[in-house]
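Subject: Patatin-like phospholipase family protein structure
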Amino acid sequence: MSDTAMDESAAEGEAADDPTRVAIACQGGGSHTAFTAGVLKGLLREWDDDHELVGISGTSGGAFNALAAWYGLVTGDEAKAISLLDAIWEDLSASSVSDRFVNDFVVGLNRLGSAGVPMLQVSPYDVPGAELGKKEIRETLERHIDFDAVPDLCGRETPELVVGTVNINAGIFETFTNEAVTPTAILASAAVPSMFEAVKIDGHYHWDGLFSQNPPIDDLLSVDADRKPDELWVIQINPQEREGEPTSLEEIADRRNELSGNISLNQELRVVERVNDWVDEGHLPESDFSKVTVRRISMGETYHCSTKVDRSPGFLAELMDLGEQRAAEFRSSTPPAVEREV
């Protein structure tokens, strides 16, 4: 065998031994993202050397999970990331008697509103103490994560961290990556306009990322070639398909909520599919563009839209257990060459 052939053979052998680069995108959906925490825990518990996490993104509640998993990994290992996910969701749950009362009241109001019952509409700017929720979220995150250390933790050897928001003033999607992921950016990603005041960042006001990239995809792919993922795993909260015709006001509200949460995700995944097709057809050089396999981890269960604000410990535990179950099913499944469900 010639020296050139030997070199090519060695290079192919090294490439075959390289781990599969993976990016994980966590869709937002309020309390339903406890499911995402369960999925991440299940994936991390069985993580192996055949896979390398090169990026993780999230929107709204998905941003909490992405941040917790990322921080746990870069400051420790998979076990620390799992422990951090558990700790943050335990703190976010409505555990005290007073908190449970408020939680049940809010869930009840949301259920009545979705059923068409006339409700008093009040701006969060007109409600005393409306910012207490954001204050509690900030305190919870800062209790477990040293945000001052985040800039020094970012680098080529750590996964890309991306959080999605919408810039109200500019009317555009806006993401915050790596060292720009601050408590304020996380709060902006979770600022539901009907519940919280907008969050001001760099002179512009921001709302919940559910109105934008849910979750961010492009930032995970627009990286250097050696950090671009081979596979994109999407943890999807909102069901893609649903049988039958929604007829009651509650069914209509549920489906509208699900569809609005999937619109931006499906648009971004169609772009990925189109690039994959162009590479296959030879319209794009493989030296500059590479195909990305898209795999979804779907909740597979439907819950009333009002439960997206339900922080009762039992409900969150149910969602986490479901997430772990879906992670186990995902690990045991054989990945397709290219996922077409986009």
